[in-house]
Specification:
Layout lengths: L6 H21 L7 E6 L2 E7 L4 E6 L4 E7 L2 E6 L6 H4 L9 E4 L4 E4 L13
Antiparallel strand pairs: 1-2, 1-7, 3-4, 4-5, 6-7
């Protein structure tokens, strides 16, 4: 025999749903980055503002890597690495995002106030 849901059951379901939606929104909130850190061989090469549209070239272990900044976003547009994973990463714009070109030892990171990892190393 089925019993209809009582008021307490409905309130618990609504409260649980609100908590789940709140946590989902909190975990996926969009935090735009203001600057990018470019590392070559694990050492900081540049700190770049994402407010200025520019193209920067750095020399990695395999050759030059071209980094492009446009409209508050950054990407690695060219790299001599064979598989091009860092180029395929595309545009980065949220704090905490990273693109790493391992064979060429070049990386870009959009720093956050709290880091989700201890360090990056090659």
């Amino acid at each position: 025999m089925k019993h209809p849901l009582g008021l307490g059951d409905v309130l618990c379901i609504l409260l649980f749903g609100a908590v789940v939606l709140g946590l989902f929104n909190w975990s996926w909130q969009h935090v735009p980055a203001q600057e990018a850190i470019v590392r070559v061989g694990g050492k900081i090469e540049h700190r770049l503002s994402l407010r200025l549209n520019q193209t920067v070239t750095v020399n990695g272990a395999l050759g030059p890597t071209e980094i492009e900044i446009r409209h508050g976003q950054i990407r690695i547009s060219r790299d001599p690495s064979p598989r091009q994973y860092c180029v395929q990463q595309g545009w980065l714009h949220r704090a905490g995002q990273t693109a790493i070109c391992l064979p060429n030892q070049v990386s870009i990171e959009l720093p956050t106030a709290t880091h989700s990892h201890d360090s990056l190393s090659f």
